[in-house]
Design a protein that fits this description.
It is built from 8 helices and 5 strands. It is an alpha+beta fold. Strands 1-2-3-4-5 form a 5-stranded mixed β-sheet.
């Protein structure tokens, strides 16, 4: 899979802060539901960890399916599972952000990132930029493969309401 746009790390942090990620770990497989920022969509995510740097993933979000980058639902599940770094205080700084509305309004992820960074104080902004670089560096070291079969073989309906 391709590297995600930087903004997807921000969105993943926001999803975790908003408690929109419901993961369940079973052996080396994490299944999860991730709800969009406006509540209009639910994404199914499956992450199969082979070892520290090899993962097979499934998610039905648009970025993952159509653009083949690691989408924010996958990033948030990998953070919740400890496969990627997570910083609760930075997540709290991104709590309640209407990501979908901002993405549609600005139409460019770079502009959304500039808007978000402009709302933060200097110290939080600096920490967030370093954190995003760290997460993207970790993703770059990983081999992450999209596996549509995981979406068929790992149902969420048997344990999610």
């Amino acid at each position: 899979m391709r590297m995600p746009p930087r903004i997807k790390v921000y969105e993943a942090l926001g999803a975790l802060a908003d408690r929109r990620v419901t993961p369940r770990l079973e052996d080396s497989v994490v299944r999860a539901r991730v709800v969009s920022s406006d509540g209009s969509r639910q994404y199914r995510v499956v992450v199969l960890r082979k070892h520290d740097f090899l993962y097979y993933v499934y998610s039905n979000d648009n970025g993952t399916v159509y653009r083949r980058y690691v989408g924010y639902p996958i990033i948030s599940v990998m953070m919740a599972s400890g496969y990627l770094p997570y910083d609760e205080s930075l997540a709290e700084a991104l709590k309640g952000v209407p990501w979908r509305r901002l993405n549609e309004e600005f139409k460019k992820y770079r502009l959304v990132e500039e808007y978000i960074l402009g709302r933060l104080d200097d110290e939080v902004r600096s920490r967030l930029l370093e954190f995003v670089d760290s997460v993207l560096g970790k993703i770059k070291q990983m081999k992450i493969f999209y596996d549509e079969e995981l979406g068929r073989t790992h149902s969420l309906t048997d344990w999610l309401p």
